[in-house]
Amino acid sequence: MSEHAFAVLRHLSDGRFHSGEDIAQVLGCSRTLVWQAVHAIESELGLTVFSVRGQGYKLAQPFSWLDVAAVRAGLDEAAAETFTLAVAERTDSTNSQLMARAGNGGLHGLVLACELQTAGRGRLGRRWQARLGAGLTFSLLWRFNRGMAELAGLSLAVGVALARALRSLGAPVQLKWPNDVLLDGSKLAGILIELSGDALGPAAVVVGIGVNVADPGEVDQPIATLEQAGIAPERNRVLAALLNELERVLTDFDRHGFAPLREEWWRLSAHQGAAVRLGFSHGEPVDGIACGVADNGALQLETAQGLRTFHIGEVSLRERR
């Protein structure tokens, strides 16, 4: 990608015409480099740029950048004291960046949001990708007094925080075990948790979150977006709302674990009383009726062999017979 692409995009993000000559003068580069940057903005970043002789270049739609000051303006007092925010234009993976800092003295409450991930990933090694500006991708580093052995149910707790925030913005989301947020049955947001530390504590956890704000482009699964739901909140506002709830939930989780959140998670579940199939990377799938989650976040299924609990697996709905 042209090294000038993001710099040129910042000039064009107001949605007005800017001449190539003016942009080149400000950046101290040639008009040819500006033209190459515009080409990269279209071909590699997925944005449309109009080029009109005598007027210059203009983005088809204004681009709103993630901004630390704008996010902090939306934080409540506790979240503002807890979180240290950083925004990157481009990185491989926000989770990878914070995992490297987790064992290297990285600050508790460090948040890294990114405009563009080149190697974003989700659960089970799946790729998480989105057009520039279409998604909200960030990770946070949280240091627990609890050991790794006591962090069962953490992904479900994070799901509760996301659901609270997104519902407050007007999105009637539901939760899919163990770490997806659904809107109208399709994936709106995902959670990826990575841990380091000792079994007895303390533990450092990186919580990675991706939210589809607008159409992310071509992806390999059905997805939902806030925009499709008729909700078009500004991304900085969404991030602030999520961080406010994450601070509350993670603080409570460190003190009491998942158990106090168990009933709330189940009320938000997309599969209450539903016939589901639980698939595994190895072995035969298990069919049953989803009937709850345990205090440690395990899924409870009523099967032909009786009530069973599962700590891993991929849930899908199945037709009752």
Describe the structure in your own words.
The protein is α+β, with helices and mostly antiparallel strands and 321 residues long. Helix content is 29%, strand content 28%. The protein has helices spanning 5-12, 20-27, 31-43, 68-73, 77-82, 94-102, 154-168, 235-256, 262-268; strands at residues 49-52, 56-59, 84-91, 110-117, 135-144, 174-176, 180-183, 186-197, 203-212, 275-279, 286-293, 299-303, 306-310, 314-317. Strands 3-4-5-9-8-7-6 form a seven-stranded mixed β-sheet, with helices on both faces. A five-stranded antiparallel β-sheet has the order 13-12-11-10-14. The longest helix has 22 residues, at 235-256. It starts with a helix and ends with a strand.
Give a concise summary.
With 321 residues, the protein is of the alpha+beta class.
- Biggest sheet strand line-up: 3-4-5-9-8-7-6
Sheet-strand content, in percent, reads: 25-35%
Summing up helix and strand content along with how strands pair, one would put the structural category as alpha+beta
Radius of gyration from the CA trace?
22 Å
Largest sheet: 7 strands, mixed
The proportion of residues forming helix, as a percent range, comes to: 25-40%
- Total helical segments: 9
Beta strands, count: 14
Quaternary structure state of the chains depicted: single chain
Mean pLDDT: 91
Note the run of SSEs as H and E.
HHHEEHHEHEEHEEEEHHEEEEE
Low-confidence stretches: none
Please tell me what the overall shape is: globular
Cα end-to-end separation: 53 Å
